[in-house]
């Protein structure tokens, strides 16, 4: 698998590999944060992260499952974002816009997941490494997964993504009153049909 091939610029492993001491998980997160920030999500392999952390690659899988799980932990995103969006995307096409915005707004308004997602958004805006990591993740993992699940074109998925994340920026980062004044139901009722119009325009 591609994620198991070390990148050309992968750093040599540090001496003294560990088999599972108390700092292993933290070391992996630090290494992953560095490499995701430098190389993006798709070009960073699990082996490169393990080498940077000075651990066996099996420990990365043990602690985080897979690269998406590790990325979610680094960005402090609750759960697997790709699984969440593909679950929402699966189903009748004629109701796709409403399902997507309902899933989105529910996660961002939830007391547990919303705090982490807003922190992730601020980090992506203020930190170049976080922006590189999340941008590449969205382009290389999330959008292709939505396109595959729905059968929509890349251009249509891109338009949907720009609307949803534009809403996130205006509502949760800039906190523009025109967006914060909307209730959760308002967001669903106003944005659902408009996202559906983008879906329906895909031929």
UniProtKB/TrEMBL annotation:
Swiss-Prot/TrEMBL keywords: DNA-binding
Origin: domain of life: Bacteria
Record domain HTH tetR-type: where: 22-82
InterPro entries from the UniProt entry: Homeodomain-like_sf, HTH-type_TetR-like_transc_reg, HTH_TetR, Tet_transcr_reg_TetR-rel_C_sf, TetR_C_16
Pfam families: TetR_C_16 (PF17920), TetR_N (PF00440)
Region annotation Disordered: where it falls in the sequence: 1-24
DNA-binding segment(s): 45-64
UniProt protein name: TetR family transcriptional regulator
Organism: Gordonia hydrophobica
